[in-house]
Amino acid sequence: MNQTPVNQTTAHLLTRISGEFADMSRQMHRMSDDFAELRAVLVEPTTQTASQPSPTMQSPPPGRQVPPTTGPMVPTPPMGMVDATSTPPGAPATWMPAPPIPGQAMPNPAAHNQAAPNPAAPNPRHNPAMATRVMPPNPTHLPAGYSPPPPAAPPPWPPSPQRSTRPALSDRIATAFRKGTVASVLAAAGVGVTLIGIVLLLVLAAQAGILRPEVRVAGGAVFAIALVVASTWWHRRPAGHTGAVALAATGVAAGYLDVLAATRFYEWLSVPAALSAAAVIAGAGLALSRMWNSQALGVLVVVPVAVLAPALTQGVDIVLVAFMLVLAAASGWVQLGRDWTWLYLVRMAAPTLPLVLIAVLAGVGVGPDTTMWTYALAAGLTVVIGLGSALVALPSSSQPALLAAITAATSAPVLLSGALVDDLSAASLIATGAAALLLLVVSGPRIPGVTTTVREIWAMTVALQTLVAVATAFNGGIDVAAILGFGTVVAMTARHSTSMARIMRGIATTFVTIGGIGTLSTAPPADLAVARVIDPAIAATTLVQCVLLVGAVWILAGMWIKASRTRQRSDRSAEQLWGLTLAVVALYAVTEFTVTAGVLVAGAEEGFFAGHLMATITWMIAGGATLAHASRLPSAARTPLLAGGLAVVAAALAKLFLFDLATLDGMFRVLAFIVTGLLLLAMGAWFARSLSDDADTSIPHPGPATSSPGQNRST
Length: 715
Hints:
Layout: H1 3-42, H2 109-115, H3 128-132, H4 169-179, H5 181-208, H6 213-235, H7 241-265, H8 271-291, H9 295-312, H10 318-330, H11 341-363, H12 372-393, H13 400-409, H14 412-415, H15 423-442, H16 452-473, H17 478-494, H18 501-522, H19 536-566, H20 573-602, H21 604-631, H22 635-663, H23 667-698, H24 709-714
Helix pairs in contact: 5-6, 5-7, 5-9, 6-7, 7-8, 7-9, 8-9, 8-10, 9-11, 10-11, 10-12, 11-12, 11-13, 12-13, 12-15, 13-16, 15-16, 16-17, 16-18, 17-18, 17-19, 18-19, 19-20, 20-21, 21-22, 21-23, 22-23
């Protein structure tokens, strides 16, 4: 009986303790809200509008039920509190039901939560700042496997249309100043201005009579030496390379111009002595550039001299060319082991450009008085110096193709030598230069630095020189025969070449094309329509041209067809094109050959008729031979030849009925029809037999249907 009051006392005690814990929970919940608000204000100041989705309003992971929210967002409680998504606002965060009391109903948590609101909890409806503030989620209350969404990337900020990505002019000038570009430009300008002053001292002062000639020349020499000495002193200073290069270039160029003025303007020195002194000065300046490893110094030594020297030599003449040749020869060794392509360019341009100008002016009749042997010697020396310098510079050059092109350009004075030299001498000079360059092309694989690209460039130069030499030395059809002969030789050589096959095919095709056009000009198609008397020399040349043209086109067609098959082209366009070209050229060349030979042997009229008769018969034989060759090939490869052979036969018949019937006379007309008809009969009979034999060997004869396998084998 005493147990009941005790149980009731215990139940009331537990209920009171539970209520106290509930009060403590509400107080902790209020503190959590206050701390969350403080953190949002101090640490997370970012806000977003109500229209943007909040990180706390992301879709829940699968398997989790979230009650719908109708009001503003509530801050998430910190660690140790329950998830706000599962507890209504104002409810005790850690509400726990009391232990069941015997005879008392179980309390309803939902009703308890609704009946016990927390008036002290912050209400978002009365705090607008909380309605728009994003509260960071508490990682301790996220379900397993849930990962927060990635933060939204900020929208790209388009650059303003007025804003330019190019730096301002002042910034570019500052950058150029830091890199030393401004210093280099100023130094180069100083070199030019100083040298102009020296030229004015040597020329204008002499014209005005300001100083004695000895004073002017001696002053120029002293000034040049002082500049070189100052450059060596300045080069020892820190960051003194640019200034030293400018000073040395000015001093060397001044000394060179001083010697040139003493030779040409005052005539104190003979040309050999002046050339020797100029070689010493130029060699010293370029040796200094090699010692300092400065290509800029070498360029600054050569360019001002080449530009200002004509002012002292009173124009472009052979004396100026001689000085430029000395300058180019004396500076060749400087490029040994140096990748100085621009120095090679200005060195070789110094003698080449004046020689080209002299030849052009001589061609129009206003050039300087220059003997042909002097010009030929200067042009030949330019080629020799260019080739020798190229062999020195190529092993260390990073631009061999450009260097080879510059070397090829040095042959321009030789190609233009016909303006001052007679045709035979000019052709000999050009042929000599072509032979020297051809020797380097053939020996290229054994020469250091001579790559395949260099050989190809030089091979094209040899072809151009050969073409000009032939056109200069020959005329009257011999030049056309020589061009065709050279093209045939190149085509035959290209068949056995590997690395140079492509460029040699191109050269051979170019020469054969030019030769074919020349053949049409010396023996036009109109000459085949009317009987005429032909000069024996021209007739012999025409015969040679026809033979060479057919042979060259035959070789070229085979080469290009083989090249197209090597590239594994699926179509046969190249084979058809070259086959058609070969057929047209061969028919025309054969007709020209037979008619010219007939006129040369039997006279104008009889030989003309006999020649056309032989041409028609030859056309028919060529068509039959093509068909016979096609019949021995596989079916896939015989189609182009069959079409070509039938086209040739059709052309022969067309010539027979359209030209021979109206032009030939007497027995020549009869023989043309009889021989052509017999050839057609022979071809028809032979092909009928050939097709029958082919069918007998390719189609097996089946045995009787009722026979056994053994009987079939015996049959």
